[in-house]
Target: bis(5'-nucleosyl)-tetraphosphatase (symmetrical)
Amino acid sequence: MSSHFDSTALEQELAKILPPQRYQHSVAVGETCVRLQHQYQEKFDEQELYQCGLMHDIARDWKVSALTQFAEEHHLSLEKEERDFAVLLHAPVGAALLEERGFPKQLCIAVRYHTIGSIHMGRMGLVLYIADYIEPNRMHLDDGDRASLLGEPTLEALCIRILEAESMHLRSKGKEITHSGLALRTLLKEGGRL
Ligand SMILES: [Fe+2]
Ligand SMILES: [Fe+2]
Model:
């Protein structure tokens, strides 16, 4: 089932509720998802894929207390890291909000795992995870880094590069990649696909 939502209406809604930078990021992630689909010849409904990127951070600016309360009230199933670091809750909370509104299941699952990465995130989740990391407004990459990542032959190879970069970045701060992200990296390195 493709999305029956109107992208322009969703953009207008987000423009009202998100801070300008987050809105800009959201549109760019949607556009980057579509760009990745063209480059890697994926076959998603383009509108649905764009909306997945557009809506992925819908709950990103909620207060931690609101995220925690929502997660408790809706009995959301959470990963350990999401309990420990509540800002990550914007992914499962955002997914639950979109599910309640009737967005397609694969879109909701992609949003669900966009922060930590997961073997359960599906192929749309793979595209979203990558797009969230490489979209042009992200200052942690320069044009050379971006071009190098986009030179990878497959989405899987590109995702491994991102997971490794994330892992190194976290380690430099004395932290570790999530269990979920680690399992994803292992699966992809063994040649697995989503
Ligand atoms: Fe996010
Ligand atoms: Fe994001």
In short: Residues 152 and 158 are 6 Å apart (CA to CA). The chain has a mean pLDDT of 96. The first helix runs from residue 7 to 17.
